[in-house]
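Incident log, structure service

09:12 report received: a user says their structure output differs between two submissions of the same chain.
09:20 pulled the input from the user's history:
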Amino acid sequence: MYAKPLIQVGIALIFLAIVAFTYKGAGVGTREQGVQIWPVRAGIDAMKALARSPVATGLVFVSGIGLVAFGARKTS
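09:34 re-ran on a clean worker, output below:
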């Protein structure tokens, strides 16, 4: 088996895990109606962040390191 693709996939996984750790996350905006008195409306804008599991991101990082180590060992 040619090990170069394993190293490339491992580096890609490490890069994606680092980006996932540092990126705050995309927000989803919602508008909720608060109070409505005939001519006047009061509303609430809320931003909810999409949750990412740090455990899953850590697993992606560790698997990337494992693929790089396994790929490097196969080429030697």
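09:41 both user submissions now match this output. Likely a transient worker issue. Closing.
09:42 reviewer note: The chain has a mean pLDDT of 77. Helices lie at 4-22, 54-75.
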